[in-house]
Amino acid sequence: MKIDQATIKRFLSPAAYKNLDTFVEQLPVRAGQAAVIAGAVCLLFAALSVTYVVMQANNIMALRADILKAEALKPTVPVINKAPVADAEVTAFAKKIEGLYSQLSFAPMGARVEMRASAVDKYGAFREAVGHLFNGGKGWRVTVEEMCVGRECKNNTPVFGAFTVHTLRVDKPAG
Question: Which uninterrupted H or E stretch holds 166?
Answer without folding.
Answer: strand 159-171
